[in-house]
Design the sequence.
């Protein structure tokens, strides 16, 4: 299924490639930088425990309201205006802090996501946006999230909390040298020190689980994870932001894992071939 909202850096175009590289045998799935949740919603629900986490409190509040109070959220969205004045007013209110109920803040934030340019939360897109068309997606997401855990933690606390031999972490952090795109309403900035701190957690000798990282293919990131037992695989996807000016322009991505993702893909192909 699709996510109920778009997001800066969302994995809509790469989600199938990510899921194809999942390791077998894990009982807990943790999406550390949840964002739009495109991989979470695309994966097979299966029988594993699922954890969605994000450091953006407004985004986490939206997910909790979708899971717990979808009818109230939809009611609050029924008569929103697709207007620049309304968009700017709501941004000011959200930026001032929690002055409304959780459902009202979730509705305002969802409106900002849907009506902003590129879902960047900063500028009004000025294009038609049918909010009512989103309501079936919200209801689908409600059913999908009912049995999951929604967390609001820094990755430095979340990862040790859930780290077990049968845990699989999917991580899609802000990309190196693009961190400024994520410094919006309710969201703290991600720094170069945070990239290093994340590396230190994942490559620590006492780390028990499996992880798959998606990053921009960047020399700094490659250097961070150049270590024994770490697999890297370059992939490309369409660059949505440049399609208007450069049709079919590709963006270089990098998968990083502490298990053999190449061997995982080969096994999948062999299984498929044997069935056919």
Sequence:
């Amino acid at each position: 299924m699709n996510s109920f909202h778009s997001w800066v850096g969302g994995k809509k175009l790469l989600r199938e490639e990510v899921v194809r590289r999942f390791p077998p045998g894990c009982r807990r799935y943790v999406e550390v930088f949840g964002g739009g949740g495109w991989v979470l919603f695309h994966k097979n629900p299966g029988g594993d425990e699922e954890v969605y986490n994000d450091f953006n409190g407004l985004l986490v509040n939206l997910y909790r309201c979708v899971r717990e109070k979808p009818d109230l959220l939809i009611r609050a969205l029924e008569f929103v205006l697709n207007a620049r004045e309304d968009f700017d007013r709501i941004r000011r209110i959200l930026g001032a802090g929690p002055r409304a109920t959780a459902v009202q803040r979730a509705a305002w934030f969802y409106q900002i996501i849907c009506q902003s340019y590129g879902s960047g939360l900063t500028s009004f897109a000025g294009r038609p946006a049918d909010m009512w068309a989103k309501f079936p997606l919200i209801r689908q997401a409600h059913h999908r999230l009912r049995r999951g855990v929604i967390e609001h933690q820094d990755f430095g606390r979340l990862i040790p909390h859930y780290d077990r031999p049968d845990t699989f972490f999917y991580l899609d952090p802000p990309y190196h040298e693009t961190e400024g795109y994520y410094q919006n309403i309710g969201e703290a900035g991600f720094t170069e020190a945070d990239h290093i701190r994340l590396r230190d957690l994942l490559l620590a000798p006492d780390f028990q689980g499996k992880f798959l990282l998606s990053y921009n293919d960047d020399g700094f990131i490659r250097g961070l994870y150049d270590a024994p037992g770490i697999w890297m695989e370059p992939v490309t996807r369409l660059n949505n932001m440049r399609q208007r000016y450069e049709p079919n322009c590709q963006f270089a991505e990098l998968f990083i894992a502490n298990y053999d993702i190449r061997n995982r893909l080969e096994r999948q192909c062999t299984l498929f071939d044997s069935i056919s």
About this structure: The first helix runs from residue 15 to 20. Residues 269-276 have pLDDT under 50 and may be disordered.
